[in-house]
């Protein structure tokens, strides 16, 4: 192994380890890291999106701790000061590493979106069909009401016809009998 390869190996510390080194809680380290990330600082991330801190990161976090302890500087001001002093090669857009797990999630997301689009299209078609069926039902209801009125009218007319047929015929009166007999003679 060459001398350059040995010097390129860096220690990676996790949040708990950095908290122990600096004598603070893990939540404080996460807060410092978020402040720096919000300002463009890039921390190492593993496949599970957990932060890993190199020696240079631990030094920067220690500087934030020291600056924020001074009464003249707020935590935000300390983070801004660290970013302004930091070399630009650590400032980069944060992009999560592409892993097989991420690709699996992307594929699954695309499949879900495809199914969702299909269901949305099907839902739209069903709504359209329901609209047509509803219109047809309204038309059928109107026809039934019209037929019901016609049947009712026919029923009334039939009743009236029966009454006329079943009504007792008037017996001819005396005068009508008298005159009708005279005509027969």
Top keywords for this entry?
185 residues, mainly alpha, Multidrug-efflux Transporter Regulator, Chain: A, Domain 2, two-stranded antiparallel ribbon, 7 helices, rod-shaped, disordered N terminus
Write the layout of secondary structure elements.
Layout: H1 3-8, H2 15-22, H3 26-38, E1 44-45, E2 51-52, H4 55-69, H5 75-85, H6 100-166, H7 174-184
Antiparallel strand pairs: 1-2
Helix pairs in contact: 2-3, 4-5
Description:
The chain is mainly α. The chain has 7 helices and 2 strands, in the order αααββαααα. It has helices spanning 3-8, 15-22, 26-38, 55-69, 75-85, 100-166, 174-184, and strands at residues 44-45, 51-52. It has a two-stranded antiparallel ribbon. A hairpin with a 5-residue loop joins strand 1 (44-45) and strand 2. Helix 2 crosses helix 3 (26-38) and helix 4 (55-69) crosses helix 5 (75-85). The protein is rod-shaped and about 145 Å long. Mean pLDDT is 82; it is low at 1-7.
